[in-house]
Amino acid sequence: MNQHNLVFVYGTLLKGEPNHGYLTEAACVEKPCFTNGRLVDTGEGYPALIEDDYAAVKGELYAVTDDQLNNINLLEGYYGENRANLYERKTQNVYSDSQTYSAFVYFFENPGNLPYITENDWRTYQQKTADDR
To answer: Residue 81 catalytic?
Structure first.
């Protein structure tokens, strides 16, 4: 199995989350790890990452095959450069305690007035939201 694409995940693709099945055969390279950006709550049961050089989002890093990457692209509504994408796929640095990686990261380009997830950690935010109910 050729696993050469690194993908940073921060929401429903995380281990234990609803879409983690897309990564069942993928190799987890680092967890936890971080990349620059800020999370917003879409109100649809998943977060979105927006660009922000001064904030860090917690997630996991996976090595995926080309087929797995294509499936993740479809899930994220990414159809290629200069297309009408829901998320844009960009290459960005991902940091662990011991190493820096270059990985694909999916960004939401039009957050509008979506509320920030101040924790910048989807799991912490979900737990806090559940506790507030």
So the answer is: no
Percent of the chain whose predicted confidence (pLDDT) is above 90: 83
Catalytic residue among 76, 81, 88, 119: 76
pTM of this prediction? 0.93
Q: Which CATH number applies to 5-131?
A: 3.10.490.10
- The residues, ordered by sequence, that sit 6+ positions from 16 with a Cβ below 8 Å of its Cβ are none
**Residues whose CB is less than 8 angstroms from the CB of residue 23 and which lie 6 or more positions away in sequence, other chains included:** 9, 13, 15, 62, 64, 68
Do the beta carbons of residue 120 and residue 56 sit within 8 Å? yes
Going from N- to C-terminal start, the domains of the chain cover 5-131
pLDDT tens-digit profile of 89-104?
999 999 999 999 999 9
Q: Determine contact, residues 57/49, Cβ cutoff 8 Å.
A: yes
Cα separation values, 88 from 3, 32, 59, Å: 21, 23, 18
